[in-house]
């Protein structure tokens, strides 16, 4: 067991594992970021984000710094748990869950990316289902939200398939240009109606004392 229990968290499904983003796993995933395989056209990421950095070495450095900042910022207003997506022992992307005033409202949102080499196999949906299981079952969330640019067909399709309801629109900039976002919201009741029985949580109890959940 690791000295910092938040780095010992795991979520496992029949297709993949979400493993807390230790430095070792981030180092294994860094070549994917260096090669730009987390990007897509059109870009799914709003500003500011390290993935918009053109220089590959600087992109990796900025990305790692953002991971370390998230690891250190755990407070009642906002916390973020970063997970590396592992398929057959290979790190292929990331899936995060973010608590937004969680102690007051019980709300979470999520962020994810997947290497271009592994898209089109249903992993994006599986990743989201895994992180929702952690949020609702493991952490007691009451509601989950998501947003995606209107031209991010994959993310919007996943939200729709998992029972999220449309929650209006918003705007963000993408490489400095304004772009419209779809907002989505998933209630605990809807998640419970669709919950899976083949997703397992590991080492969650040890983490609850370190997160401001109530």
TrEMBL record:
Domain N-acetyltransferase: 16-197
UniProt superkingdom: Bacteria
Transmembrane segments: none
PROSITE patterns tied to this protein: GNAT
Protein name: N-acetyltransferase domain-containing protein
Native species: Kribbella karoonensis
Classification of source organism: Bacteria, Bacillati, Actinomycetota, Actinomycetes, Propionibacteriales
């Amino acid at each position: 067991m690791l000295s910092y229990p938040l780095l010992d968290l795991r979520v496992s499904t029949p297709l993949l594992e979400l493993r807390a983003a230790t430095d070792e796993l981030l180092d294994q995933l860094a070549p994917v970021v260096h090669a730009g395989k987390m990007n897509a056209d059109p870009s799914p990421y709003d500003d500011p984000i390290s993935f918009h950095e053109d220089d590959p070495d600087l992109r990796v450095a900025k990305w790692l710094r953002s991971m370390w900042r998230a690891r250190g910022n755990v407070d009642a207003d906002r916390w973020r748990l970063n997970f590396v997506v592992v398929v057959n022992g290979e790190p292929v992307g990331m899936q995060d869950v973010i608590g937004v005033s969680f102690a007051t409202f019980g709300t979470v949102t999520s962020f994810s990316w997947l290497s271009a080499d592994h898209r089109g196999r249903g992993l994006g949906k599986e990743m989201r289902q895994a992180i929702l299981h952690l949020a609702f079952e493991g952490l007691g969330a009451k509601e989950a939200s998501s947003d995606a640019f209107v031209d991010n067909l994959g993310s919007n399709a996943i939200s729709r398939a998992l029972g999220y309801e449309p929650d209006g629109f918003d705007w963000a900039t993408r490489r400095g240009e304004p772009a419209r976002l779809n907002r989505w919201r998933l209630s605990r009741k809807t998640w419970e109606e669709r919950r899976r029985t083949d997703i397992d949580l590991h080492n969650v109890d040890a983490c609850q004392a370190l997160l401001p959940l109530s």
